[in-house]
Inverse folding.
């Protein structure tokens, strides 16, 4: 299975994602933001970080960079595109997924483990995954998901919510919402569910010596689904 | 502008220093030259009050590749890997403008590390604020934490450990010390020594603006009523540019075009160009019209003294300019050939076709002033006579709750949750433990790092305090299973012109030297920050020690959380009941006098080394050093982290329960072992003359001494975690 990770100036989880993808069997290529064409890939990943220093708005400048037109075309033709953290912010800016990501409710950067409930298992990202709840890691300043009521209705009608922040038993409640996101939304799909944007970093949870191993579950399942 | 004595004094120079400049030049300097002298001769850059004493520190060791004198120290961790590390202060700017001051402190220290070719792999910090009641403290704390996070998070370097304290002596002078560790291949280390004639001198990074002019001079003076006016001397950071600079420099370093490289930190272009030339015993010629400027009509004086961030100076091999430029173009960074190395042994600056400065380099460096300041030796304070009846009537659990909620003991999660501590995917021990630990990417090794300071002990008796800080750092590394290798120190003191402050400095340095020499824990880098004082009020002497250790097999790393019910808990090291200068004495008895706990270097080394042996033999399940708050505070933290309780039994001692549990004797650890290993462990301890007490066994969820003295771990946890969160949300 082939994957590609895009490096923007200011990306800083690109290497971590490369390590994770390779660990679970992807043949991964790093792609520079000024390239025009994507290598042949089954999965394209927009990694976390601070692309263009978060200037203007998080993700906005990266969404206009050269390679992104190819990424958008790839997504529109059904290709799998996953944006993690800053990658999610970029996806939102391209319009590939609906909504926006505002500054965290308490105006502070948050780095900690969270639990997320997988709310939809129809997509190639979460199909067949055994667990309903994953313990993942977040590290962001602008992860407060927001959309209009009309958008929310549409998202929910289309079952586009991928994961929600929850407690360790999978209960989606206010106290387990780390950043003020609407309806505890931690990740969403586009309509066809080939594009996924999410704030948590599965690539930081791929080893028992790190914060946990639920990221491994995610990647193992992901590559099996793509095969 | 014609330079005269008054202008020189306005630049922070002393009368006789100005006289010496005129003598060395055999003429009156022009304003640009005066600016250069003032930047090179200030305390921050010249170490004129400290040099004499710093020379006495042990700086060599089997694993030391580079000691003090370079951008950072370098140690060997085997397999052609080396760790580059240093700690540096950014105290003055952080008090004036906490966000930018702290952010650029972090940016500056990371540049020092990647200048040497190392990719930064971990950040740490030691931050000290005034009393929590002081009106400025909350905003300063918030600003500093946001600044540290804002820069480090954007760079994608995890912040893995740190230390925060509150003490009224910092009311008018907070301390922000930032430390970075980088990883480099031993044969790819870059130095700042220029070599060869007519080699191109390259400027890369951000453009030069008017920010930070005289930053280093500002940091070499006390504060007065007009500090608000000093805001323009604080640099403004841009971590995005630094991230690009990091990647571009490391890319250029893969080749062989760099002869020397130096970041532009304090005193900007001035000190970087002079240091490179001085180390190479060369001259340097710079055309200031070629320097990329952010603002128009900048004068030579401003260009030379600007402390704009994210800039580097490189001496390249001839003919490599185009190849290097390509890399910086790719990363969208400025690149300009601004001068060349010469044989003149002078710094010669040109602007608009005129020579605007012409100074022999040795006058700026070797001939810079060095002072043997007067200092006063501190007496060891007399022991307090504590009324035993008074303390024996205290209820242990009530005292414990107060101590766990004390600002200097309580959980600092509110702080470190704002730092990305997991990026790079190798953080195997997060903040909140004895040391932060990161794996050496792709290997079985891990590097542990901790930063410590004990201002109260140093204030009570500088010599003992100096030794203690090094020992505590040693213990923090051992507690996670790391073999201590070397330290970096950040020496924060009041005015060297005050005999008592100078005495504190001299004796703390002596203490640091004695301990690091005995423990074979040499000093490889560091910096000195004097004049941490407002009017004539100096801070408590606060040397911060940043230590680095190696774990050869990271699966053997130890954490402090209690692991398993029924396991046995031991205290390693002897408890004498030293209460003076303990947190207990200050918080509960309101007693500020008396000597700090004594340091016995033999026991310190022996206890530490034997514990490391036990860890290496897989006999230790958890470990934690005993410091502020004594045995029971340390045990409580292990309970809280592991969500387990403990059945305590106080060993038979002549001292009271309170003295046993709250005293701060040194060289002690708490360890957890399993029952089946008990005999083996005790045999090893006995054979090696290591004193130990059997403290109790691990239980479900209660800290229990007797029916009157017990408390649930949940309750202890809430006391430990709530203070800072509540303080910051009010």
């Amino acid at each position: 299975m082939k994957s590609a990770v895009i490096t923007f100036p200011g990306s800083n989880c690109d290497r971590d994602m490369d390590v994770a993808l390779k660990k679970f069997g992807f043949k991964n290529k790093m792609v520079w933001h000024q390239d025009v064409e994507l290598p042949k890939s089954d999965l394209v990943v927009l990694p976390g970080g601070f692309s263009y220093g978060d200037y203007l708005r998080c993700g906005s400048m990266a969404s206009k960079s050269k390679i992104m037109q190819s990424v958008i075309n790839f997504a529109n033709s059904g290709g799998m595109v996953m944006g993690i953290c800053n990658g999610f912010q970029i996806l939102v800016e391209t319009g590939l997924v609906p909504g926006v990501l505002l500054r965290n409710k308490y105006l502070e950067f948050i780095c900690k483990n969270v639990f997320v409930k997988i709310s939809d298992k129809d997509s190639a990202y979460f199909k067949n995954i055994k667990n309903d709840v994953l313990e993942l890691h977040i590290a962001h300043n602008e992860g407060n998901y927001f959309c209009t009521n009309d958008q929310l209705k549409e998202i929910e009608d289309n079952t586009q919510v991928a994961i929600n922040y929850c407690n360790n038993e999978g209960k989606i409640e206010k106290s387990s919402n780390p950043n003020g996101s609407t309806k505890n939304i931690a990740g969403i799909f586009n309509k066809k569910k080939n594009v996924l944007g999410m704030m948590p970093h599965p690539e930081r949870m791929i080893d028992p010596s790190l914060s946990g191993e639920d990221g491994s579950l995610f990647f193992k399942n992901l590559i099996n689904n793509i095969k | 502008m014609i330079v005269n004595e008054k202008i020189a004094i306005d630049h922070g120079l002393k009368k006789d220093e100005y006289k010496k400049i005129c003598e060395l030049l055999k003429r009156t300097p022009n304003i640009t030259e005066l600016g250069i002298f003032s930047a090179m001769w200030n305390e921050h850059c010249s170490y004129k009050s400290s040099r004499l004493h710093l020379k006495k520190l042990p700086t060599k060791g089997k694993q030391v590749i580079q000691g003090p004198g370079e951008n950072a120290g370098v140690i060997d961790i085997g397999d052609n890997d080396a760790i580059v590390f240093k700690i540096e202060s950014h105290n003055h700017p952080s008090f004036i403008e906490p966000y930018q001051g702290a952010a650029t402190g972090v940016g500056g220290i990371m540049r020092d590390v990647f200048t040497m070719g190392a990719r930064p792999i971990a950040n740490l910090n030691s931050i000290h604020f005034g009393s929590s009641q002081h009106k400025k403290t909350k905003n300063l704390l918030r600003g500093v934490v946001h600044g540290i996070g804002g820069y480090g998070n954007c760079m994608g370097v995890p912040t893995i450990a740190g230390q925060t304290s509150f003490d009224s002596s910092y009311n008018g002078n907070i301390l922000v010390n930032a430390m970075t560790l980088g990883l480099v291949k031993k044969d790819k280390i870059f130095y700042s020594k220029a070599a060869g004639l007519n080699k191109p001198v390259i400027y890369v990074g951000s453009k030069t603006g008017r920010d930070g002019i005289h930053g280093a001079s500002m940091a070499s003076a006390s504060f007065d009523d007009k500090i608000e006016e000093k805001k323009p001397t604080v640099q403004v950071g841009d971590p995005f540019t630094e991230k690009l600079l990091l990647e571009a420099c490391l890319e250029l370093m893969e080749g062989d075009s760099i002869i020397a490289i130096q970041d532009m930190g304090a005193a900007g272009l001035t000190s970087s160009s002079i240091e490179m030339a001085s180390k190479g015993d060369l001259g340097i010629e710079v055309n200031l019209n070629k320097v990329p400027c952010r603002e128009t009509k900048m004068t030579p004086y401003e260009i030379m003294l600007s402390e704009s961030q994210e800039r580097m100076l490189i001496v390249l091999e001839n003919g490599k300019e185009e190849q290097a430029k390509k890399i910086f173009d790719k990363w969208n960074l400025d690149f300009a050939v601004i001068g060349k190395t010469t044989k003149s042994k002078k710094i010669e600056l040109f602007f608009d076709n005129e020579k605007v400065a012409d100074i022999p380099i040795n006058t700026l460096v070797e001939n810079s002033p060095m002072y043997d300041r007067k200092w006063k030796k501190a007496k060891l304070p007399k022991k307090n006579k504590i009324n035993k009846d008074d303390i024996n009537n205290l209820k242990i659990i009530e005292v414990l709750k107060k101590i766990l909620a004390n600002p200097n003991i309580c959980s600092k999660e509110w702080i470190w949750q704002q730092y990305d501590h997991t990026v790079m995917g190798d953080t195997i021990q997060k903040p909140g433990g004895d040391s932060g630990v990161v794996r050496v990417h792709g290997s079985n090794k891990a590097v542990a790092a901790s930063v410590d300071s004990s201002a109260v002990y140093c204030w009570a008796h500088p010599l003992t305090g100096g030794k203690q800080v090094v020992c505590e750092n040693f213990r923090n590394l051992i507690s996670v299973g790391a073999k201590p290798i070397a330290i970096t120190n950040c020496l924060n003191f009041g005015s060297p012109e005050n005999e008592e402050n100078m005495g504190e400095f001299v004796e703390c340095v002596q203490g640091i030297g004695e301990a690091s020499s005995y423990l074979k824990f040499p000093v490889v880098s560091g910096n000195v920050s004097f004049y941490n004082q407002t009017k004539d009020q100096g801070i408590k002497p606060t040397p911060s020690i940043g230590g680095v250790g190696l774990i050869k097999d990271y699966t053997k790393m130890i954490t402090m959380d209690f692991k398993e019910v029924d396991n046995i808990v031991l205290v390693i090291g002897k408890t004498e009941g030293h209460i003076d200068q303990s947190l207990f004495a200050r918080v509960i008895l309101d007693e500020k006098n008396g000597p700090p706990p004594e340091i016995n270097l033999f026991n310190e080394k022996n206890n530490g080394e034997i514990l490391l042996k036990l860890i290496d033999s897989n006999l230790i399940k958890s470990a934690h050093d005993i410091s502020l708050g004594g045995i029971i505070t340390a045990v409580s933290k292990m309970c809280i982290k592991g969500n387990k309780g403990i059945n305590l039994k106080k060993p038979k001692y002549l001292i009271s329960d309170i003295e046993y549990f709250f005293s701060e004797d040194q060289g002690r650890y708490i360890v957890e072992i399993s029952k089946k290993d008990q005999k083996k462990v005790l045999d090893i301890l006995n054979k090696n003359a290591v004193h130990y007490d059997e403290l109790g066994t691990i239980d479900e969820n209660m800290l229990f001494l007797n029916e009157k003295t017990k408390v649930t771990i949940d309750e202890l946890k809430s006391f430990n975690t709530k203070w800072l969160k509540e303080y910051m949300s009010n």
